[in-house]
Each structure stands twice: as structure tokens, then as C-alpha cells.
Amino acid sequence: MSALLMLQLSTQGGEAASRSIVGLIITSDPVTKAVLLLLAVLSLLSWTIMFAKWRAFSTAEKNGETFVREFERARGIDDAMLLAQRSKPSAFTAVFSRAVQFLGDTKPALAATTDRTARLSGSQVEALRLVLDSQSGKEREELGRFIPWLATVGSVSPLIGLFGTVLGVIEAFEGIATKGSGNIGAVAPGIATALIATAAALAVAIPAAFAYNVYAARLNRFDNELEGFGSELIALMVREGRI
Prior knowledge:
By secondary structure, the chain is mainly alpha-helical. The protein is about 85% helix and about 0% strand.
């Protein structure tokens, strides 16, 4: 019985707090409303980027992991080409296709002899490495697009909220000076309304900053995996006698 009474009181308290916050927003001045509207737009932007990047990273990592796992069992470039053709497109298949294109466009500097097949020279291998790095950079750039916006929202939102709060406090004190009353009952509503902007800004900034750090770490890890795949690809060419 007492638990039900406490639950009822808690629910009533929560509804009262909710009505209080909504009421403060409705009765806030136009400047505070404009700041809250701007923060709402930034929040929508950041959450859209977060969901889009979550999906992009999940797809890229899943497809890439499947291709790399089967690539490690390939016996040569020809097997890997067949594997890439039947695999889902990913950053790893793009890097592999760029390497195959390079091999098709490049004439081996070391001609074939009776003891070995034609091979790439040291400078050609270095050029291949640069081509792989370039393609890896493109894939990383594509996957990391819009992530810096999360850092921007995370760092700018608190400043916007602080700006709205300062303007609200100034207006509250001007109202007190006009009415000629300085008691807590006259000051509190204006201060509370002004602080809504700061609270809303933190609600926007915290998820954006958290998501930026998470996605930046995942992007660095993905970049390292692409670099490692390039090394595995060159090692496969060495085992096959192309280098």
C-alpha cells in the first residue's frame, strides 16, 4: 500500500516537473525560443548522422570481415579475383580491384626467364603500395564523411546554449529593474527560463561528442585494417612469384 502511494506521488511529481519545463519553454522569450529551435535543428542533424554512420560502419565491417576471412585462404590472385566477384562490395574489394587494375596496366620490369616468371621491380612495388594507400584513403574518406560534424555540434552547442542563457538572464534582470522587485519570487522564474537553453545545449552536445569519439576510433581501426589488407595482398603476390 505504501509502495503504491510512493509510486503515485513519484508519478505526480514527474508530471509536475514535465509540465513545469514545458511551461517554461512556452513562456520563454523569443530569443530563448530561437536558441532552442537552433539546438533542435542541430540535435536532429547529429542524430541523423549518428544513425547513418552506425549503418554504414556495420555494413562496411560486416562485408569487409567476410571478404578478408575468405581472402586469407586464397591460393593466388586468380582465386582472390573470383572471390571478389562473388563478394558484396566493400572497401576491401575496392582496394583489391585497384591492385588488379594496376597489375593489368603495368608491364613487369623484370622479364621472365627459364627460372622464374616476369616480376615487378622494386620501384613498381613501391608504386603499387602508393596506389593501395591512395585507394584506402578514398575509402576511409568516404566512410568518415560527416563525422567531423558531430565534433562541431558537440563543441558549438554548449556555446549556443550559454549565449541563450546569458541573454535570458539579462532580460530577467531588466524585468526586475523595471518592476522594482528583487525578491526570489521575482528572480527565479526568469533565471529558470534562461537556464533551459544551457540544459538543452548539453542534451545536444553530450551524445554528439560521445558519438564522435566512438566513430573516430572505429574509423581509425578500419583504416588500420585496410592498411593490413594491403600488406597481405602484396605478400600474396610475393608468394605467387609476381614480385
